[in-house]
Each structure stands twice: as C-alpha cells, then as structure tokens.
Write a structure and sequence with these properties.
Blueprint (H helix, E strand, L loop, with lengths): L11 E3 L5 E3 L6 E3 L24 H4 L6 E2 L11 E9 L4 E9 L5 E5 L1
Antiparallel strand pairs: 1-2, 2-3, 4-5, 5-6, 6-7
Length: 111
C-alpha cells in the first residue's frame, strides 16, 4: 500500500498511459516503478479458485469414521458418519449424517 506524502490518503492506481499512482484528495501523482522489489500491485482483487489434483489412492482414503449401518439403496453395510449441531434461540438439535462407502448415498437422522 502506498500513501500520499502530502495528505496521507491511500494512492490509487491509474491505468491510462504509463502506470502511475494518484491521490484522490490532493491529486498528487507519481510514476509507478516496476523495478521496486517490494512493490506489489493488485488491480483485480478477486480470490482465485484453488484447484487440487489428487491421485486415485489418495481419493480412496476416508477421513470420516465408518460405522456398520445398512444402506437402503445398495445394501452395503458400511457408512461414513458425521454430526452437525444446529441451534437457534429455543431449539438445539444434532443431525447425524451417514454416507454409504459403496454408492455414496447420504441420509440423515435428526436427534
């Protein structure tokens, strides 16, 4: 971040012509030097999506605990499980999710 040496306001990037920094208050302007090592310029401040590529062996790892529950879709007897607690002003409840390790069907039980 660069600040105006005259009034202390945050300098804006001007993209017209040669890149420069300009003060919106007092109109102070200085050229933008691309050779300064610590100077980073971000014109578009959107976060980029992070893409992660994993191999087949890593994809088979199951980080959630597994329990013996019969799947209603495929009949497999192993499912991953996790809990989500919900709370509003009066009611506090826990929802338990079960995802079949064979077909991926997810079901939930409120309790």
């Amino acid at each position: 971040m660069n600040f105006c040496p005259q009034c202390g306001a945050l300098l804006e990037i001007v993209k017209k012509g040669a890149p420069s920094l300009r003060c919106p208050k007092c109109k102070f302007q200085k050229p933008l030097k691309q050779t300064e090592p610590n100077q980073k310029i971000s014109i578009n401040c959107r976060k980029s999506a992070e893409i992660v590529v994993i191999d087949k062996n890593t994809a088979l790892l199951r980080p959630l605990p597994a329990v013996n529950i019969v799947c209603s879709t495929c009949g497999h007897n192993e499912s991953e499980t996790w809990n989500v607690e919900t709370a509003d002003e009066i009611i506090h409840s826990t929802i338990t999710f079960f995802r079949c390790t064979n077909c991926g069907k997810t079901r939930r039980e409120e309790g």
